[in-house]
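Q: I have two molecules that I believe assemble together. Could you output structure tokens for the complex as a whole instead of separate predictions?
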Amino acid sequence: MNTLLKKTIAAGALSILLAISSVTAQNYYKNGKAWVTKAEALKPVLKETIIEPKSIVEIVKNKDAFQGWEAKAVAPIDSLYDQSIRKLNSVIVDLGDHYTGYFSFDLATIWGSPDSPVRFRFTFGEVPSELVTPYEPFNGGISRAWLQDQEYNIMYLPGSYKIDRRMACRYIKIDLIGSSPYFDFKINNLKFKAVTSAKNTPKELPASTPEMIKNIDKIGLNTLKECMQTVYEDGPKRDRRLWVGDMYLESLANVYSFENHELTKRCLYMLAGLSDDEGYVLGTVFEAPEPHAQAGQRLMDYSLLYNATLKEYLAATNDMETAKELWPVAKRQLAIINQYVSDNGLVDYERANGEWWLFFDWKDGLNKAAGIQGLMIFALNETYELAKLLNVENEISEVPSLIKKMKRAALKNMYNFKTGLFECGDDHQISYASQAWMIMGDVLSEKASQKALANVMKHQEALQPGGPYMYHYFIQALVKSNMYDEAKTVLTDFWGGMVDKGADTFWEVYDPTNDLISPYGFFPINSYCHAWSCTPVYFIRKYPEIFQK
Amino acid sequence: MNTLLKKTIAAGALSILLAISSVTAQNYYKNGKAWVTKAEALKPVLKETIIEPKSIVEIVKNKDAFQGWEAKAVAPIDSLYDQSIRKLNSVIVDLGDHYTGYFSFDLATIWGSPDSPVRFRFTFGEVPSELVTPYEPFNGGISRAWLQDQEYNIMYLPGSYKIDRRMACRYIKIDLIGSSPYFDFKINNLKFKAVTSAKNTPKELPASTPEMIKNIDKIGLNTLKECMQTVYEDGPKRDRRLWVGDMYLESLANVYSFENHELTKRCLYMLAGLSDDEGYVLGTVFEAPEPHAQAGQRLMDYSLLYNATLKEYLAATNDMETAKELWPVAKRQLAIINQYVSDNGLVDYERANGEWWLFFDWKDGLNKAAGIQGLMIFALNETYELAKLLNVENEISEVPSLIKKMKRAALKNMYNFKTGLFECGDDHQISYASQAWMIMGDVLSEKASQKALANVMKHQEALQPGGPYMYHYFIQALVKSNMYDEAKTVLTDFWGGMVDKGADTFWEVYDPTNDLISPYGFFPINSYCHAWSCTPVYFIRKYPEIFQK
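A: Yes, here they are, computed for all two components at once.
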């Protein structure tokens, strides 16, 4: 509710200032608070577009459709506007595509004088299954409140009404659950005010581009556009906030599409300003009620990817001023590496994994020892690149030798020269993640990289990527290793699979073998428009010679 | 929701103006619209009182308690403020009395950073049963939306929150139905902003007054106070609007208690301004989204009681100006009588009952032929009294002879000289309503009145009053007939019954033999604070010699 939100911000301010101070009390960077202010000054004004529903749909069982449900158009939207919602009682409308924003409608009397309040339940769904899957009893591992269903009591009608909670959806289910026998009314003038900070129109792909690539690009752009709000959100349905890993991939895609570099700048400043009292960038921050960090959210791979994001931002914009101002933050993240790399050049995985969250992928049982070794080397390389662009490599002169040492250690301890594959853990686990990150870290020659990637794809027991986020790095590793056909095939197979299943936006999790997979134990709470899935936009547009033919 | 309401008023204005014009287009009274404006100018500023819950209660089965449920205090309210609402999950708090207004609360973090929205369901109850009776599946005869339960999603916390729907309740149930395992929080600073237009403090009853009378008076005052909002409402939970019959009894009680005569004046002007295009006062009108009448709501006994209300207002205030201005309305209501009284002086009951709603009481099978005959004569008497106070009796000089004719017809056609009782219908139905209204109409001598009332109370098959509203007229008839002991006994037995069952305010319907009776097929939707039940305040304070000893 709007009033609610306003009150929250007003009343939340004090309590939140305490919350912030607990994170940045003796702020590590003397400019910390100023950076948050700078970030707030960069808050984009969102572009608004009024969308009208295209049709009334029925959601019907179809074993071939995604999650077994298909939306079938049964009538034009106008047919809703002429009839009694009391008689209709329940209806689902289709916006025609995925949008993020605010729903409004009118209620008009057909006969009688409204002598009582009426009650609706609205349900907003990104995919058809969300409209027909019972939410109760709820057994998901995260908050029930993420689900986009809500009761509304309307005390007086006729009138115009607006739902103040921002929703992300394509389909809207309207259930009338309370009305009076003494008057009749209809619902009409349904509108959805879509918002985004993606304002430019990316250039068309050449007509010669294969249809499937065109589709993947189009849906990828849609996904990115929906996630671009007042920050790079991970997903407009959930979690609706800034995570470093999502920002990294979104900002890469943004460079080759919407080019809203100001948004990247805002996010970089906000993350810097809300870093913890040791100067480490936290995995995620919140914009409301007041900008604040998730206390103690130390996510090692994300902290290190902050540096890569800053480097890419500088490379794309040549905005030296920002990069210079935030350089101390990038430099400070290297302390994470120094803390956990032993003299032998190997990451102390047990300790790192015990003291920080290592994410990498939604993949049960994934051993991240090789992944973090490779990612740290990648971060060192990126940070050194950044330093060179800023002419401050002297400030981190120890980095090149550290890189050498860590590469040697990786090869010596984790590389199987027979199979040409990286292994880790007592069970010598072989995963796509380990190979990808070691190659991202430049640990292998091109030839050896090609062998590792080819072999892992042939390997029966190798742990495959759990979702789109890890697929990005695997494809990046293939591209880096000049395995263009394989890169295109993996991208086309994985994202093309979502296209074939009717995706309007790309999903948080996708397993071609299991439509109902969920990291939260309840698939309707998954995000079906998720930032880290927009990455084909980056590949297709950065490497036309690979992906556009 | 507040925003919703504002939008409704804003956007509803247009559509409502149409609605009004359809009722008062060629307004019968040239001042009709001006009267509505005058009523709006008289809208009272409500007195606000901040109430804090007194305790945490459990609602437990108790076959001796009203409707089988009793609220037992189990802990002081402060004990709620120290603990996790996530662990508690569900709690019921007690405001200590019935209040009408707005609920607000704070949410504060205990540990972690709120990483998700939370969802509550709040349920507001006037009586304990409303908190523990399942509302689904709902089979009531009126809108489900009247029930005071509601889901709320809170997107950001900590903060302060306010529920913008006005509630009428003593008990508030808080159910947490969505939260995150990654942070904990508590609910505190619960407040209820109580509102009323009853501002004066009525004078204390003498210490010598019997306890039960003191209790009935106290609860009656509470009931009246709660129903006095920006109009005389029928009930603050339901229907939250102005009905003529309720207004009549409330304004009578108001004269002897809160003395807010401006409120009566506002209601008289609003009803006059919103009367239909034949000048008939409608049974009920609405304040929002814009003042308007319930189209075609012709309620004959209520239209006629408008005149009695205006007369009582003048008698209490000597406000000749208002009475003069509204006199044409009173005069016009007499046309209803002339339309339905045949040459023989008898009301054409079939036609009247077919063309208008005759209410009188919630009582199945009640034949209202004698009732309407008596009520019309009563209305004629009251209107003639009003005319005399205004020195305009010449304008209705035909009234006295009409009264005579109608009395004669009543005695000739409906009075059983053997039994001394009025009968009506083919089955010679005998009811309290028939006797009461004939006596209100002054049809019988005092002696005959006493006989009729004594006999009806002895009569086994006589239809008794169905609820408080009819009990008022029956008691008034007893008082009128100098049957003081009986009047006091009936009042003490009936309202005392509610007192003994723990009423905080008097109820819309009360049947000593059936706690679960409901005119709507579902007792939780009954109003448990209902205007027409406040009438003991009037009897006790107007007739101290009868009721205060």
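A: One point stands out. The mean pLDDT of chain B is 94.
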